[in-house]
Design a protein that fits this description.
single chain; alpha/beta; inorganic pyrophosphatase (n-terminal core); OB fold (Dihydrolipoamide Acetyltransferase, E2P); 42% helix; globular
């Protein structure tokens, strides 16, 4: 599996692309990309390009949203005590802040709890539930981004007279209660729920809030008319990007309009973290800014300490308090980066010596920080292009960790075949958590390798790099960038287009930078002007040769009020003798 990228042109029906170009009156490259991504129907393609708020569907089409809305309406009317549980990642934090903010707007009696990673473990654990109940037995519990597989905890709460509502998108790994209120399209399934299966939890919570507003508006509650529903998309956008769910359908709308809210934030906490990430200038915020500059700061708190501060940051109405928390999150993120870098280097050495001939990677170390090993697993998976599990020691002779998977395989399926060795596991096809007795690690490593190898016999996991078109450096200009901006936001399911450049001319020597010396800057000659470029984690491609082809992504940059273009080097290969 650890093979080099195979460059290939996008698979596109050129006749369909030409027809789409004429019908929609869009440029040729745009039409080709749309058709290659399955959007050959003009109506679907126009829906994709427009991505308007008016295209959002009725929330009550999502199974059990009406029940949630009516139960919350009842709780608000009766002034019932409501407890909200969230997870400690961006999705759980955003979901919690969204729900608590909404219920407080309607003067609800609401409190929230986020598990402490090192004391409570993941999700709706018994310890976090008991801590909440020590503050008083709530009439309603909302479990957000957790709870689907917490059968014992749900029963414990129901035994105490609590109505339990779960809003989650994780797949079920056990038998569920039949009579709880569960909003989870990945459990209920069905053709009418298929479009919602790609939502993160914050997207589902947004639907719940929309449903509650509809119920309250029917009751002529004036507070529902004052509520800024569109304004909640700042948090939905962060969660959708952070959870790496497909930016298609309504997710695309969430992120498109959420980015606009982030551009001019009304929420003091959002404004503070955008400013702390140096994104509060006059340039457009894009999805990758959230991925690399904003979401890691929100996540850092839950990885290093506990995730209550970012929730409080998003809920506070005090701008100064929000700034203080945003600054603390930035410091935590720097510490997270330091720890993560050390573990990644150590883990990489282990991979090189122990896993060169394997189809999978399973690493364990007594002393690795459990808060960052998920990021390490992701970096190793990207570097070696193999499913990767990274584990560290917990108490009671248990190991806990995270897995990351290559596209085409599913960790949920792979772990299910090794479930007899596991204590806990669950998550998404590409990212999942896992726990087991330390004595089982060597057996799990063998079973996981067998599971991955068998899956690869059925599914060919290609390392293809799709080239949208071959262009010259001189064609990299503002006209091309305007076309590409129509496809934004980019992300999972809607990747940024990659272009090939034949035999580019490099000006000067590349400049290596970064703490680990893995990145470099370069300059291309393009029609009498210079194009500045960057290569992330690509120092192994040096030295740059004039007789090479490069694959690049193109980014719009902003500096001192001026808009420019940055070329990102994706891959490099020896050039063919003639232009492709």
């Amino acid at each position: 599996m650890n093979k080099e990228l195979h460059w290939k042109p996008i698979s596109c029906d050129m006749a369909a692309a030409e027809q789409l170009r004429r019908l929609l009156r869009v440029p040729k490259i745009l039409a080709q990309i749309l058709v290659a991504r399955g959007l050959r129907d003009p109506q679907q393609a126009r829906f994709f390009l427009d991505a308007r708020l008016s295209q959002l569907e009725d929330p009550f089409k999502l199974l059990h949203i009406r029940e949630v809305a009516e139960r919350l309406h009842f709780a608000l009317k009766r002034r019932e005590d409501v407890a909200v549980f969230g997870d400690y990642d961006v999705d759980g934090i955003s979901s919690t802040a969204l729900m608590v903010h909404t219920l407080r707007h309607f003067e609800g009696k609401v409190r929230y709890y986020i598990p402490r990673r090192f004391e409570d473990g993941y999700g709706l654990s018994q310890s976090v539930v008991e801590r909440a109940y020590a503050d008083g037995v709530p009439k309603v519990v909302l479990a957000l981004d957790c709870g689907t597989n917490s059968v014992a905890q749900v029963q414990w709460m129901r035994d105490r007279g609590t109505t339990v509502i779960i809003v989650d998108h994780h797949r079920a790994t056990c038998e569920l209660h039949a009579d709880l209120i569960l909003v989870n399209p990945n459990v209920h399934g069905g053709d009418d729920q298929e479009n919602y299966g790609i939502f993160c939890t914050a997207g589902l919570v947004f639907k719940c809030i929309h449903g509650l507003l509809k119920v309250l508006r029917r009751q002529n509650d004036r507070r529902a008319l004052d509520f800024n529903l569109k304004g909640q998309l700042d948090l939905v956008a962060m969660a959708t990007v952070a959870d790496v769910v497909p930016l298609l359908g309504e997710n695309r709308i969430f992120v498109k309009y959420g980015l606009k809210e982030l551009q001019s934030p009304w929420r003091p906490g959002t404004k503070a973290i955008i400013s702390q990430a140096a994104l509060d200038g006059d340039h457009a915020i894009v999805a990758s800014d959230l991925s690399f500059k904003v979401c890691p700061r929100i996540n850092a708190s839950g990885r290093i300490a506990n995730a209550t501060p970012p929730v409080e940051m998003f809920l506070t109405e005090d701008p100064e308090k929000a700034k203080v928390i945003a600054s603390e999150l930035a410091e935590m993120n720097l510490e997270r980066q330091r720890i993560e870098s050390e573990i990644t280097e150590e883990a990489s050495r282990m991979v090189e010596t122990e896993f060169s001939g394997c189809n999978s990677i399973v690493l364990f170390n007594d002393h690795w920080h459990t808060g960052v090993i998920g990021i390490v697993a992701g970096k190793l998976m990207q570097r070696y292009r193999k499913p990767c599990v990274v584990l560290s020691r917990e108490e009671n002779n248990m190991a806990k960790g995270s897995g990351r998977c290559v596209s085409g395989l599913s960790l949920v399926d792979l772990f299910s075949k090794c479930s007899h060795l596991l204590g806990t596991w669950g998550g998404h096809p590409l990212a999942a958590g896992i726990g087991m007795p330390i004595d089982n690690i060597s057996h799990f490593r063998e079973a996981f390798e067998v599971s991955v190898t068998e899956a690869l016999r059925i599914i060919d996991v290609a390392n293809d790099l799709e080239i949208v078109d071959w262009i010259t450096a001189g064609e990299i200009n503002e006209s091309l960038m305007r076309q590409l901006r129509q496809l934004e936001p980019f992300g999972q399911g809607n990747p940024q287009p990659v272009f090939g450049v034949h035999c580019p001319v490099f000006l000067g020597e590349p400049h290596i930078f970064g703490n680990n010396h893995q990145h470099f800057n370069f300059v291309l000659a393009g029609n009498g002007r210079s194009l500045h470029g960057v290569a992330w984690q690509k120092v192994h491609l040096l030295p740059l040769q004039s007789s090479c082809d490069i694959a690049v992504r193109l980014h719009t940059t902003y500096w001192n009020g001026n808009r420019g273009i940055q070329v990102e080097l994706v891959d490099l290969r020896p050039s063919a003798s003639t232009e492709p």
